[in-house]
């Protein structure tokens, strides 16, 4: 519980939470839309570009008076104090600021989530169809579509597939690219356990977030692999469950489940180990990240032991997008055809490291690049490479999605490991 002094400090020195934002143009006017990627707040806020400029100073170190001074310095005009107070109050009301209101809402959300017996489908009806019949038709259409893998048998039919990488984007949009990876599972010797590594949409203090909840989709309930989850808890892995609330509203794992149910669940029962992850490639080289590196290393050691001791035959799925380029992701200018093709060439060069199962080389590639292209799927792909026992990997399909009116672009690929 916050002290009165702490709460007053937050009111006078506002501290913005880690929000997502996107540029918006209406006629000649430019705005920015803000939202909470954790889903704790369901609200969005649209602010003019001039007010959004001030948000870089909502860092808990600048007072309201200093915010007004920064505005005057930038635009040469006074920002009326009551307008600034109203903006701070609106941000606080929407749970966009650190403070007592946010802390209470977070504690309640954690309690509510842990009381659930199942993690309900959060994106059915928005990102994919919400009824079983329509969803099955939609999924089958991904395979048969012009961008999909078609109906010809895979060259690896009947083989044991150790892992796949699939997009981490809206299923209704990127479904045909998902289908390239899931076709491999459809025709493979399917295991009983699928470890799903989701790219968490927000940062994780500890880099890893396990959950013990079964997942629900319109196609039914997907049970967790209880022996592995119980082993992790019984052998010192409780700390890896501390941020389980992030599963409540994160789509990364959910988007994989209808595909998995469609291609495997119709043939045999299976269980999952749902793991969200979020950590930078610099973790491997920067001394500042040493505690996080050690934590991830301990997780990998314990998880491998859990799989081995519980005698599980597993396949690992990495839910991961690649580059994020454009104004929406912090670039100064929109992508051009030339810049996209250059990005594609760099993506494919980077994925050579992944095909070669070179986890450290993959990390070093991104460290050397300096996060210029905002490759968000690194942690999921890195953990996949550290967990699987495969001979090689292969890029099956590469594509992109334009996500706003400024041509901001996300790239993704489907891969298979065998």
Secondary structure blueprint with pairings:
Layout: H1 4-12, E1 20-26, E2 29-35, E3 44-48, H2 49-52, H3 64-75, H4 81-93, H5 100-115, E4 118-119, H6 132-144, E5 163-166, H7 171-186, E6 193-199, E7 208-210, E8 214-217, E9 220-222, H8 226-234, H9 257-265, E10 271-277, H10 290-309, E11 314-319, E12 324-325, H11 337-355, H12 359-369, H13 378-387, E13 393-402, E14 409-417
Parallel strand pairs: 4-8, 5-11, 6-10, 6-11
Antiparallel strand pairs: 1-2, 2-3, 5-14, 7-10, 8-9, 12-14, 13-14
Textual characterization of the structure:
- This protein is an alpha/beta fold.
- It folds into two domains: 4-107, Alpha-Beta Complex (Outer Surface Protein A, domain 3), CATH 3.90.930; 117-417, 3-Layer(aba) Sandwich (Protocatechuate 4,5-dioxygenase, Chain B).
- Helix content is 39%, strand content 18%.
- The protein is built from 13 helices and 14 strands.
- It has helices spanning 4-12, 49-52, 64-75, 81-93, 100-115, 132-144, 171-186, 226-234, 257-265, 290-309, 337-355, 359-369, 378-387, and strands at residues 20-26, 29-35, 44-48, 118-119, 163-166, 193-199, 208-210, 214-217, 220-222, 271-277, 314-319, 324-325, 393-402, 409-417.
- Strands 5, 6, 7, 10, 11, 12, 13 and 14 form an eight-stranded mixed sheet that branches.
- A hairpin with a 2-residue loop joins strand 8 (214-217) and strand 9.
- Helix 11 (337-355) packs antiparallel against helix 12 and helix 12 (359-369) runs antiparallel to helix 13.
- The longest helix has 20 residues, at 290-309.
């Amino acid at each position: 519980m916050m002290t009165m002094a702490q709460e007053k400090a937050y009111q006078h020195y506002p501290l913005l939470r880690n929000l997502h934002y996107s540029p918006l143009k209406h006629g000649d006017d430019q705005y920015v839309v803000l939202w909470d990627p954790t889903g704790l707040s369901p609200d969005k806020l649209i602010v003019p570009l001039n007010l959004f400029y001030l948000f870089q100073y909502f860092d808990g170190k600048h007072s309201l008076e200093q915010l007004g001074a920064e505005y005057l310095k930038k635009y040469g005009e006074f920002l009326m104090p009551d307008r600034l107070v109203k903006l701070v109050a609106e941000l606080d009301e929407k749970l966009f600021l650190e403070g007592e209101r946010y802390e209470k809402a977070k504690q309640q959300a954690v309690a509510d989530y842990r009381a659930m017996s199942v993690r309900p489908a959060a994106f059915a009806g928005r990102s994919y169809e919400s009824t079983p019949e329509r969803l099955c038709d939609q999924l089958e259409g991904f395979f048969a579509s012009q961008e999909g893998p078609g109906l010809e048998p895979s060259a690896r039919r009947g083989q044991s597939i150790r892992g796949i990488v699939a997009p981490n984007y809206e299923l209704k949009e990127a479904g045909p690219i998902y289908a390239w990876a899931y076709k491999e599972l459809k025709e493979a010797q399917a295991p009983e356990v699928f470890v799903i590594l989701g790219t968490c949409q927000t940062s994780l203090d500890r880099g890893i977030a396990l959950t013990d909840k079964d997942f629900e989709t319109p196609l039914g309930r997907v049970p967790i692999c209880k022996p592995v989850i119980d082993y992790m808890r019984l052998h010192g892995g409780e700390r890896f469950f501390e941020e389980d609330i992030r599963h409540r509203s994160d789509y990364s794992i959910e988007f994989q489940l209808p595909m998995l149910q469609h291609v495997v669940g119709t043939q045999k029962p299976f269980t999952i180990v749902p793991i969200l992850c979020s950590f930078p490639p610099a973790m491997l080289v920067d001394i500042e990240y040493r505690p996080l590196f050690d934590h991830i290393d301990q997780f990998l050691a314990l998880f491998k032991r859990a799989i081995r001791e519980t005698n599980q035959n597993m396949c690992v799925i990495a839910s991961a997008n690649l580059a994020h380029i454009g104004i929406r992701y912090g670039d100064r200018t929109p992508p051009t055809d030339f810049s996209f093709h250059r990005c594609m060439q760099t993506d494919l060069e980077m994925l050579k490291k992944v095909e070669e199962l070179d986890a450290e080389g993959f990390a070093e590639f991104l460290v050397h690049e300096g996060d210029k292209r905002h490759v968000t799927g690194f942690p999921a792909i890195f953990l996949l490479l550290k967990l699987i026992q495969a001979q090689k990997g292969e890029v099956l399909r590469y594509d992109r999605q334009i996500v706003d009116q400024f041509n901001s672009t996300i790239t993704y690929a489907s891969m298979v490991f065998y």
